[in-house]
Amino acid sequence: MLTMLAIPLALPASAERVLGAYIFARHGDRTAKVLKNTELTELGYNEVFDTGSYYRTRYIHANSSQHIQGINENLVKLSQISASSPSDDVLQNSATAFLQAIYPPAGKASNEVLADGTTVQGPLDGYQLIPVATTSSGSNSEDTAWLQSSTDCRKAEVSSNNYYSSELYSSLLQSTKSVYYSISFLLNGTFNESAMTFKNAYSIFDYLKVGSIHNTTKGATDDELHQLYLLANIEQYNLAYNSSETVRAIAGARLAGDVLQSLNKTVTSQGKTKLGIQFGSYGTFLSYFGLAQLPATSDNFTGIPDYASTMAWELVTNSTTEFPSPSELRVRFVFHNGTISGSDAPTEYPLYGQSNGTISWSDFVSQTKKIAVTSTAQWCQMCGNTAGQCAVYSNSTGPASTTGTAPAETTASEHGVSRPVAGAIGAMVTLAVVLGVEALVLFLGRLQIRKQREDAEDEADEENKTS
Question: Which sequence ranges are marked TM in the entry (predicted)?
């Protein structure tokens, strides 16, 4: 796996403070999507818990340099934190695991003394209950390999389907036939022969990847998994984002709106709202990457993030005022691919093609408004939906074009300055080498040699049985 180098940035001033943050996270290890009834595994539970533990150290611990100003350290104050997830078993359980790490059981600190002097301790050593709100999109997203099925956005579905008519897709569908034929013996019984193609690149990769983690039987080699992963990256990124049809990135647009509204609430409440946490699928990562122009920073942002990956937006300032004016606020974006453990930490990356590591609050608001969806009416118009919750808006201004995003509705103040801030190195598998002609030829050759070797071994076994 190749790693992505962080852009060199100046160290933050010692006076810098974090006033609020918003985290978007992917679930941990799970069972394969194609088998349905997808479940979070114990490994996945631990991955998400470990990542949550890191963010507790970063944002909640009082001695952390990134401690969110004024946030309770040991006993959760529900007015300071919000958490959300789609109606999906894997994502909701991941959110619960993450929150268990953010605010672990409080022990005796949670004891309550009643009027008659009785001391009551909460169950499970003072387990802290943090509600997880259900978002309106993304339901059952981990039980389907089709990115747009959980968005319910009509024009996004049409746009993603346009990819299947593209020259790029047709070319890859033909040129990779031998790739999938060479591993077909690993897919029999789960995929029909007609489904063993590039059109199901992610489902095939996901199935074999999960098998490599949990099954002891012979499966795909590391080299095969890497190549299949690169193909899945191409398929899924193109289904999640297209620069000329931005409605395709509706999931990322909604996330951008959620982030903007949450940070703006921190500003308008003078810091009373401090931390937002949302769980979602890899497709939302990919579509946000495209909308925020992160691939301009590195081609690695066109790849599928690993389990327990996170990205966060931090509202920071160098002002000594308890809660400064908007002109003294900046936003930092950080990303980490996969579980955060040991000495790992997220890396800072510039948003929207900026050269600086952080972006002024005013620029963040104006740039985010260009890509964000922040209201049901706006979503309905952009998606062209007219039924259900959209019926009331169907006769208003009409659906928005599929080639752009309507401006977001926000009351955020638009003032501020930017200042570069340091980040740590993160990692994400590169897409730059994918499908190079020489690499593909070598890969196909290796697959053919492996298939011939295994066929010969099978024939030898049969001869031994009959002798």
Answer: 421-444
| Residue 205: domain span | 152-241+437-466
Q: How far apart are CA 71 and CA 343, in angstroms?
A: 24
Alpha-carbon distances of 210 from 25, 40, 204, 352, rounded to whole Å: 20, 12, 10, 34
Through-space distance between the first and last CA atoms of the chain, rounded to whole angstroms:
46
Judge whether 419 lies within some domain: no
> For residue 449, is pLDDT > 80?
no
| Lookup: tokens for 17 | 């403070």
Helix (H, G, I), strand (E, B) or coil at 141: helix
- Measured CA to CA, the distance from residue 323 to residue 226 in angstroms comes to 48
CA–CA dist 262, 271 (Å, integer) = 11
Q: What is the pLDDT of residues 343-362, one digit of tens each?
A: 999 999 999 999 888 999 99
Contacts of 90 (CB under 8 A, 6+ apart): 27, 30, 38, 39, 40, 44, 142
Copy the structure tokens of residue 267: 């500003």
Same-domain pairing of 135 and 56:
yes
pTM across the whole model:
0.82
Distance between CA atoms of residues 246 and 248, nearest Å: 5
Residues 6+ apart with CB under 8 A from 401: 247
- Confidence at residue 142, expressed as pLDDT on a 0 to 100 scale: 57
DSSP per-residue letters across 75-117: S--GGGEEEEE-S-HHHHHHHHHHHHHHS---GGGG-EE-TTS
Same domain, 100 and 157: no
Give the number of other CB atoms < 10 A from CB of residue 108. 9
Q: What are phi and psi of 118, to 5 degrees?
A: -70, 135
In whole angstroms, give the CA distance from residue 406 to residue 375.
Answer: 11
CA distances to 310, 313, 354 from 351, in Å: 16, 10, 6
CATH code, 33 = 3.40.50.1240
b/e map 392-412, b = 16+ CB within 10 Å: ebeeeeebbebeebbebebeb
